[in-house]
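ARCHIVE CARD
Drawer: 12
Card no.: 0347
Subject: one protein chain, sequence and derived structure
Cross-reference: see card 0346
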Amino acid sequence: MYYFLGIVLIGVIAWLLLKEKPWGFNLVSKQEARLKRGLEYLKKNQAITNEQYREMVGITRRQAIRDMDLLEKQGLVEQIGQAGKDVKYRLKS
């Protein structure tokens, strides 16, 4: 009897957790949506700064750096400037 109740309880907890937030899918789709928005911005404008990107998509400074690094590694954007506020990103030609 206790074994059955334990399995039911674990099932209910798992269902509640997955109902609220499907971890793997939610994180990837949010990042993809941000990156797509950033690329759309770059298609219309010459360049984007970390600050502009952060404000546009509502993320932290560190997350913005990771996003731009990912786009750089994929060969989609290039960094202009060395560090700090001088850094901008543009579409790679």
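Annotation on reverse: The chain has one domain: 2-91. The first strand starts at residue 48 and ends at 49.
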